Amino acid sequence: MPQQRKFFPGWLVVTSGFVIMATCYTIFVNCMSLFQPLIVSDLGISLAQYNISNAISTVVSVVGSLVIGHVADKVSGRVLGSLTVIATSAVLAGMSFVGELWQVYVLFAVSGCFAVASTRLLISLVTANWFTAKRGLAISIALSGSGFGGAILSPIVSSLIVSVGWRSAFLVLAAVCIVAAPALTAPSFPPTRDEIGLKPLGENPGDPFVSTAGDKDEHTAPEVSVGWSRIKKSPAFWLLVVAFLFMGLVNGAILPNQVTNMTSVTVNGAKIVTGGHDPMWAGTVLSAYMVTVVIAKISLGAIYDRFGLRFGNILGSVACIIACVALCFPTTDLGPIVAAVSFGIGTCMGTITPTIAASKQFGMADLGKVTGTITSLEMVGGTVGAIVSGVLFDATGSFASTWIVCLACSVVMLVFLLASEPIAAKIRAALARGLSPAQISHARSSEFRAAPSTIYRWIERGYAGMSNMDLRRKVGYRPRRRAAPAPTPHGPERSFSAFSALPNSL
Asked: What is the predicted pLDDT for the residue at 21?
């Protein structure tokens, strides 16, 4: 048995991604609201004029996701990661010197491309390329840096603004990004795995045997690269894209309105009581939501690894459905609490799932293009959700109609996610039949550890669309209910004997 590798360098990539999300991403996504009243006051502009900058950032991030998704398939993670950090730091430094509104718009446009779009997408893609086993866990840990950073940086930034002023605070944050993030990015993002002679975790000779999520998936087929020309014509891809468009719509509607839904709001001088709760109580509920997000981001990735894509999608979608129902009862104590915890789980699908779903359904070769397209349409959905929620509230004086729309979107999202998976599996199975035994053996080596001759018999007998566990059941193998004291993979010899013993009529 090969000696188990003590440390896999891919975890450095995870660490680097965590730090970048905790600094570059968090500052623009979670901390910019702290600067809003001061910038508006100093520049002598209106709140509406300032808020246009957020819209500009969103629009640019949609386009940026598409571009970065295509570029990431060709350019090394080290180059793109370093560029992202440097650009983010430059924008933060530039914000300290703004004197005109147009300058704010330009800087927010740059931040939309790099700090918002590039960070999350790039980190997901680079991390996914380093892992076959534990891919979901690795991606979720890297992206959870945003929640950690939000909890740590928010009070720090508030103190900085009070002590040194908002302009100097921007310079300090720029220094934090340019010092902390590249120091980890350069060594942790090697140009390619091949240049250091490594395969993804789960495919190296020294890696322990790790069951993949496919063991739990009914519609699992070999992990082969479908190819962009096939992907963009496949209903499976567009079902996935539309599903996350609805995910974005739900996020865009709930995120800016969840506190107002619990309390009250004044519109044109008239106070509208929505939930009627005290703002301090609402703040406590919001804190519970943020804690849930941090935990859920890490847990959801592990759930995808352990129980499969279908189970994770059902869990996240059902959590969104429960949250939408609970939001319809804002005057109760239980409704907002259930909504906060449930949505804390469901909203993580929008961050964690696109890369995981894309890699499992369509392979790794065009992961950037697929994930970039999904992410960009998800952002479009977020913009639509924010606008629609405002229009519906102005028309009705209540958020109830918004939550009903979000409920319908969550149900459609679940249906589309479940429909996409088996279609993609059929495409992968069909492509697998066109590969040589050696190619298929390489594609599923971490899962089956079988000789090419064994794989050939498997393909010949029509089992291309079966998962590892389903295949084992087919040949009469029954896994132990209790964990063995040492790993006991189903080896090539046993596989060959089992396949040879199968009657040709099966």
From this structure: 83
